[in-house]
Task: inverse folding
């Protein structure tokens, strides 16, 4: 398997395979049923971000080589490389329709890339859309489920919403008490969850950007967040070695 630490994992949408990215520069595909390795892809540097498209066709990877790479999820062949960042790519997310991928980087920018032209993947259909506004490293990005907005979390403590079609910042800036390293959007489009250095999980109204509830319980940084499919719960993973499942609306 991998020879260095695993930085990111993702399920393919059918749930039959898991993709893992490692500091050893490899991306590996594993069959969930028996743990058998079914494919290997190789980047030019450490891999810290992987994502799978909802249509099951594409895998996106990024990391130390500052490049976003799209792979065929079936053949594991490299389809296209997207160059534009000037530092590590830290986070990746596909739009719900799989037509775009958003990348967040330590270079303080967020870029929305076109991944398809019509039915065929053909690289960039237009120049990448670069979103400027953060003043430090961007560690986490997510699309809202309608695909119209991108959420980004940054080491400057801010969480920003951007209109995906033109990069315009939308609404007020949400602010955490420390570095923000994890963001997630609920499938019903109502909530944004954020976490990071302040050891708190915060739920925000995705429309008004008002703070809804803060969840305190971790004793170290919150590093990862995900909503349940029904949006009623959010799960947080922390460097305190614990995982906590919370009620989205009450914080219990």
Result:
């Amino acid at each position: 398997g991998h020879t260095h630490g695993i930085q990111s994992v993702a399920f393919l949408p059918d749930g039959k395979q898991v993709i893992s990215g490692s500091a050893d520069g490899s991306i590996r595909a594993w069959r969930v049923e028996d743990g058998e390795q079914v494919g290997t892809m190789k980047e030019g540097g450490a891999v810290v971000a992987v994502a799978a498209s909802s249509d099951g066709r594409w895998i996106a990877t990024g990391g130390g080589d500052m490049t976003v790479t799209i792979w065929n999820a079936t053949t594991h062949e490299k389809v296209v490389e997207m160059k534009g960042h000037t530092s590590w790519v830290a986070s990746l997310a596909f739009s719900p329709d799989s037509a775009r991928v958003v990348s967040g980087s330590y270079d303080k920018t967020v870029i929305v890339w076109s991944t398809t032209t019509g039915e065929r993947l053909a690289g960039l259909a237009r120049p990448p859309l670069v979103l400027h506004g953060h003043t430090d490293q961007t560690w986490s990005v997510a699309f809202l489920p309608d695909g119209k907005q991108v959420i980004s979390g940054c080491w400057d403590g801010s969480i920003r919403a951007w209109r995906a079609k033109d990069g315009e910042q939308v609404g007020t800036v949400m602010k955490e008490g420390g570095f923000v390293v994890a963001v997630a959007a609920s499938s019903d489009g109502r909530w944004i969850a954020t976490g990071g250095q302040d050891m708190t999980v915060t739920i925000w109204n995705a429309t008004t950007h008002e703070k809804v509830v803060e969840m305190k319980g971790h004793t170290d940084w919150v590093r990862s967040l995900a909503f349940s499919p029904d949006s009623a719960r959010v799960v947080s993973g922390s460097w305190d070695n614990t995982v906590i499942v919370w009620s989205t609306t009450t914080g219990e």
About this structure: Residues 117-131 have pLDDT under 50 and may be disordered.
